[in-house]
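can u do me a favor
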């Protein structure tokens, strides 16, 4: 699944560790999501959306539509 996480994080000048701490996950999890090697669970995706004040669809999109 494609995502805009890296861009959104950079706009706020947050490190992967900063975002991981806000989400309650490891930095490696944030890295894996940004690298599109891991799709977050639905609760985690909602938490990411809440942190960035965006709907899930504003952050994540399917590879193929």
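np, heres the sequence
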């Amino acid at each position: 699944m494609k995502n805009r996480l890296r861009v959104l994080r950079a706009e706020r000048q947050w490190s992967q560790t900063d975002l991981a701490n806000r989400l309650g996950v490891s930095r490696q999890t944030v890295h894996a999501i940004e690298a599109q090697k891991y799709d977050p669970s639905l609760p985690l995706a909602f938490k990411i959306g809440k942190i960035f004040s965006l709907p899930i669809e504003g952050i994540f999109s399917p590879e193929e539509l």
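The first strand starts at residue 2 and ends at 3. hope that helps!!
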